[in-house]
Amino acid sequence: MARKNKKEKTYTKIALNDPKSTTAEAFRTLRTNIQFANIDKNIKSIVMTSSNPDEGKSTVLVNLAITMAHADQKVLLIDADLRKPTIHKYFEVAESNGLTNILMDNGEEGNRIQMIPEVPGIHIITSGPIPPNPSELLSSEQMKKFIGKMKEKYDFVLIDAPPVGVVTDAAILSTIVEGTLLVCRQGETLVESVQFAKEKLEKVNANILGVVLNGVKRTGKKYDYYYYNYSEEA
Long-range pairs for 103-110 at CB < 8 Å and ≥24 separation? Predict the structure, then answer.
């Protein structure tokens, strides 16, 4: 799938709409690798971030959630990108009543968790109104308590965060979850950007599960997504 111009951006759920594709299979491989990482560690909450904007982190996260739901996992998908939220666009739901409302309401979710009829195993929490202080909200005690409460109700809590190379939000969130995944785009993300993102996460002792390399082109086939572990040279 050729990368769209920003003005033509689409919100692709290929794991749902084309489950037999090589790309959908790559997302299932990512799911399997996370399951293997979970053998010795109880990884129930994961933050997805990227080095820079427009590297496909939200698309990867949505499709990972779908593959997990297809494997009979109960998944909560949270849009914690309180600067440029997009999760609601994938599922065509309203974003106006979501995470920021919950945090301002002492962590009470109320009716702010939305069911997704097309994928019964997925529930989502949209961003809610964009706040003036995203980092402060995400680092609050209310956020920590809320994530802890959701882990008791779901098999996996998947959190979309802003690019870690741009703002501190993802680094903050990585301290309250069991694992962090970093997305980069082949041919566009600079090695230096990945190194910088890795260093920022390591400074807060984030458990970096690995990297999703987005936009890998196979000749004559669609663009695929691949997962590989970090090496010391990354």
Answer: 103/137, 103/140, 103/142, 103/143, 103/146, 106/142, 107/142, 107/145, 107/146, 107/149, 109/146
